[in-house]
Design goal:
22% of the residues lie in helices and 27% in strands. By secondary structure, the protein is α+β, with helices and mostly antiparallel strands. The chain folds into 2 domains: 2-316, Sandwich (Jelly Rolls); 327-425, Recoverin, domain 1, CATH 1.10.238. The longest helix has 15 residues, at 402-416. The chain is globular. The two termini are 26 Å apart. It binds 2-acetamido-2-deoxy-beta-D-glucopyranose (2 copies). InterPro entries: Cupin_8 (IPR041667). Residues 174-281 form the Cupin-like domain. Keywords: Signal. This is Cupin-like domain-containing protein.
Length: 426
Amino acid sequence: MLLLTFLLIQSKIQWISTDDDGSSFPKDMNLHVTFPPILERHESMALGHLRPLGWQRRAESPILEDSLKIEPARFYHLFIQGNRSVAFRGMVPALDVLWTDSYLSKRYGHLNITIAKRKQRLVDTLVLLPFKIFLEQYRHDDLYMNTIIPDEMKSETPLPSLINCGTFRNRLLEPVLWISAGDTASLLLAHSTNTLHCVLDGRKDFIIFDVSNQYPNDLDLVRQSNGDLYSRIDVDLVNAYKYKRLHNLPWYWATLREGDCLFIPAYIFHQVRAHGRTIALSIDMSPIDTREDFNGNDCEKNPPIYVPLNKGKFLWRYEHGTRHLSKQTITNDDARHYLLLLLGTNDQLYKDIFLEFFRQVTYELVKKDTTLPTADDIWAQLSNDENNQEYISRSRLKSVSSNVLQLLVDVLQKSVRIHEYDKSEL
Ligand SMILES: *[C@@H]1O[C@H](CO)[C@@H](O)[C@H](O)[C@H]1NC(C)=O
Ligand SMILES: *[C@@H]1O[C@H](CO)[C@@H](O)[C@H](O)[C@H]1NC(C)=O
């Protein structure tokens, strides 16, 4: 087994198993859980002290739901520009009947996938191993799968048509497949991307916080290199004295079952609990500059509710346990588009975000090609401003000349062809 010592495929969600050890008792697969919880008040103690997250304040209401017939433009105006979560029932097919463990093992068992093993709270070790081995172990051991879905599986996986046209289409970043067993809980976190989260089997309960009036700096937040934020709160045993803020933060809830999807905008704090055998697909999308209007020229009038996932043009695909750009030919416009995607809704592209992108793209290439320009070289070319090397503005990215982009294009082109390049060099 190849042990990956750092986050190659950054887990979108870091999970804590509610079991304490990796004991080999089958996990509790019960799907009948009371959620939102019924609060217990004790005179002498802060509400929800040493209880799970969600016990510190009564839920406000369920997350809004909308119709499967929602037009992409309406979705854009209400939920992307409106910066609100929304649930859709029955948006994708339930895959529990088709995707049994034995089917997955027979059909896809040979594929190498990245799985996460839980060692200590907050720290996961990522391991690359055949899917088959994971399927033999996940009902007993403290591990779960959380990986960009392999290309081979895409034809059987759904992509809601809602996000596969117009302004959304070329902002699809990556589809992440999640498989777990038993009760697991995520950290309290906020992604740097918009996410459409769909449950294909099992059940997931979501807590979504409304922090619009008071950014929760006092929740012990940690920022990851991809911009995601998570809180160090122990979500199973909350210290309600230390995190008093939780008594004042309104929260909303959603329970997703097979076929349901939930849209969560970037930087919305949420926490998730999975129950039973859970298979979910999380589609990450680059946030949109919402000052721009929706362009839906290519959106069909009555599209099927979903299409196979291989119809989506995602920025990233997955090979040998690492991210690769999906496109095989990189033009100047592509390179500019990638930089604008990194920008999200910001007007400045910060250097660390670019460095992380560059590291991921060139992860395999740098080991083979020692003459490669460094991220710093390329950054210096792109920014071309001695006074301010910390960020590049949106307007500069939009107008930067093809000449200036060329160095980046060359590196991206080399990296996407790395496996052809391998053969020709050897
Ligand atoms: C999976 O990884 C192992 C070890 O790196 C390798 O030998 C094997 O060929 C890989 N399998 C596939 C299907 O890529
Ligand atoms: C959406 O709301 C979150 C939480 O209040 C905030 O941090 C984020 O900046 C908002 N995003 C947009 C695009 O307004």
